[in-house]
Structure formats: C-alpha cells, structure tokens
Amino acid sequence: MEAFGDPKVKTLWLKHGIKEPFFGVKIEKLKIIQKKIKKDDRLARELYATGNADAMYLAGLIADDAKMDKQELQTWVSRAVSQNISEYTVPWVAAGSPHGYELALEWIDSKKDHIAAAGWATLSGIVSMKPDTALDLSQLKALLARVAQNIHKAPTGYAIP
C-alpha cells in the first residue's frame, strides 16, 4: 500500500485532520484493490488492526458488514480516531450490520467526538437505506429535535450534546 502513497494527498489529508500513520493512498487506488479482493473478512480485520488510516479505509471496503459482531464494531469505532474512518468507514460497515441501529443510538451519546460522529453517520446511513416503514419515526423525530436544539452548542461541530 505504501507504493500507492502520494505525498501531495498525504499533505492534504493531514490538513483535513487525518491522523498518522497513513501513506496518502487515493481512494481510487483503494477501489482498484477492493475490486480485486471483493470481500475478505479476515484481511479486513488484519488491515483495520494496523491502525494505518489507508489500510483501515480499505478494510471497510472489503469487510462483510453482515458478519460484523457488536464487539468488533465497538473495537473499530474506538480505534477510529481519523475523521475519514469515524465518519465514513465505520458508519458504512455498522449501518450494514445487524447491530447498526442499536450501536448508532449508543454511539451518539458518547463523550468522545469521533464516536458520537460515527453514531450520527451510522444512523444517517441506516435512515437512507431503509424504508420509512422499517424505521422508528417517532424516535428519529425526537433525535432531530435534539439536533435542532443543541447543534449550536456542539464544541467541535461533531457531537450533539
């Protein structure tokens, strides 16, 4: 993966809050790798465990969401300290898992901004994929009211208190 790294991409991503270690691999390169691998849960777990943001992103692309258990998703979200991982990789994997909704509701109450952001993004993904008849609309309306009431008080723009 290091061979695909681009110093200009790395510099840009550092400015956008992506945390080391990572090589600056363009998403288009990761997608090429994904197409060759397709789904590989073992490799996804190994890649994510490296802590390298490029590898973690690729792990999300090749993970089989439906096979992710709650503990593994909890581990992924706790290690998702880069914005691209906490707001994209973890949420799309969690949203596709059987535990996504439950974990999203738990994560949005986290005191850790990256976990709260993952919760909101996971919830957003679930809401966008499921028909209204499969959603608890009254609960979602209450969450929207919470956002409207508290968004301007959010310390970093991530977490909604």
Summarize this, please?
With 161 residues, the protein is mostly helical.
Fold and architecture overview:
The structure is a single chain. By secondary structure, the chain is mostly helical. It has 2 domains: 1-63, no CATH class; 70-161, no CATH class. The chain is 63% helix and 0% strand. The protein has 9 helices and no strands. Helix 2 crosses helix 4 (53-62), helix 4 (53-62) packs parallel to helix 6 and helix 7 packs antiparallel against helix 8 (113-129). The longest helix has 17 residues, at 113-129. Residues 157-161 have low confidence and may be disordered.
Helical amount: 55-70%
Terminal Cα span:
38 Å
Query: Roughly what is the average pLDDT, rounded to an integer?
Result: 93
What is the count of helical runs? 9
Structural class: mainly alpha
Q: Spans of 5+ residues with little confidence (pLDDT < 50)?
A: 157-161
- Number-wise, the strands total 0
Query: Strand-and-helix sequence, N→C?
Result: HHHHHHHHH
Overall morphology:
globular
Q: What is the beta-strand fraction?
A: under 5%
- The tally of domains stands at 2
Largest sheet entry: none
Q: Gyration radius, to the nearest Å?
A: 16 Å
